[in-house]
Amino acid sequence: MFLKLVPDTTSIPFTKFRMTAAAFSALLVIGSIFALFTVGLNFGVDFRGGVTIEVADDEPIDIGSVRDAMRPLNLGDVKVQETVDFAGGDPAVVIFIEQQAARNDAGDEAAPAEITDNDEIRAGEVAQQDALVAAKDALKALLGDDAQFRKTDVVGPVVSGELIEKGVTAVVISLFFMLIYIWAQFEWQFSVGAIAALAHDVIITLGMFTVTQLEFKLEIIAAILTIVGYSMNDTVVVYDRVRENLRKFKKKDLTEVIDISINETLSRTIMTSVTTLLALGSLYVFGGEVLRGFTFAMIWGVVIGTYSSIFVASPILMATGVKRDWSKAAAEQQPATP
């Protein structure tokens, strides 16, 4: 017996809820933008700069002991997390150390008047290296000389700034090319609707990370780009059916055509979202702390992307006045249905 989450034929009047959905989306978008400018994202080491150390040992590593070993070093914010090794390797932890402040020649934290360009370079290079050496020495003293340092990354302020810039650029470029693609495949009204839905998804996802203060790391950018692709794919499926039905039902009202199109693709949309969420849910539960932020972003993106393809992208076609006969040649090849 086949599993059916949605009946084969539905007649839900989605367009009747478009004003309520528009108000709800506007509230989420405005709230997300306000939170971004007032609270801000909780940037991880990738974007703030700092030191990352992954250390393994033959015996289980006590996270509390690692934190106690780091505390006397006065390295600022230090986070310690366990890692999951699915290959059955030795127990390991990851230590994240925040970017170190500029130091003067005496090794003390420099006063604002003392900070020059050279001091900033020292903060990004020498001070970071000093923190790395001090942390490794403390870990060796705690775990012994058999401690295995699997990974040591040092990210300075210059590199972290470049990562922020490149991350934003990647998202903007992806949205631009999506705009061009939809415009070429459909019409400008469809392109506006698709980009509005994608921008809606990205802004609300950033707002969710701001409100929850989950660590915003480089892999979250990858998750956002994946969300963009997923949401666009969902929107294109609905738009393609809308285009077909605009040619098929020439005398039906546009709102009715859009409702028919969404209902015809609803089963596919729900099944795709549910199966994707099942995989992401398993990864969120069993993937460990390292993958938790990425999978949480993906889960949120699937939910908000499914919502936007129905309640944001499609109603915009009504607001922009999509044409009913943009391709007369194609329309003439198909018999009109009253």
How does this structure look, described?
With 338 residues, this protein is of the alpha+beta class. Helix content is 63%, strand content 9%. The chain has twelve helices and six strands. The chain has a four-stranded antiparallel β-sheet. Strands 1-6 form a two-stranded parallel ribbon. Helix 6 packs antiparallel against helix 7. It is elongated, with a radius of gyration of 26 Å. The two termini are 37 Å apart. About 5% of the residues have low confidence.
Write the layout of secondary structure elements.
Elements lengths: L17 H21 L3 E2 L1 H4 L1 E7 L6 H8 L7 E5 L9 E7 L18 H8 L1 H18 L4 E8 L1 H29 L2 H25 L2 E2 L1 H31 L5 H33 L2 H23 L1 H8 L7 H5 L6
Parallel strand pairs: 1-6
Antiparallel strand pairs: 2-4, 2-5, 3-4
Helix pairs in contact: 1-7, 3-5, 6-7, 6-8, 7-8, 7-10, 7-11, 8-9, 8-10, 9-10
Number of helices: 12
Distance between the termini: 37 Å
Radius of gyration: 26 Å
Mean pLDDT: 77
Can you count the beta strands? 6
Low-confidence stretches: 110-117, 326-334
Label the overall shape: elongated
Helix % is: 55-70%
Strand content: 5-15%
Element order, helices and strands? HEHEHEEHHEHHEHHHHH
How is the biggest beta sheet arranged?
Answer: 4 strands, antiparallel
Class by SSE composition: alpha+beta
Could you give the order of strands across the largest sheet? 3-4-2-5
The gist of it:
This protein is an alpha+beta fold and 338 residues long. The protein contains twelve helices and six strands. Residues 110-117 and 326-334 have low confidence and may be disordered.
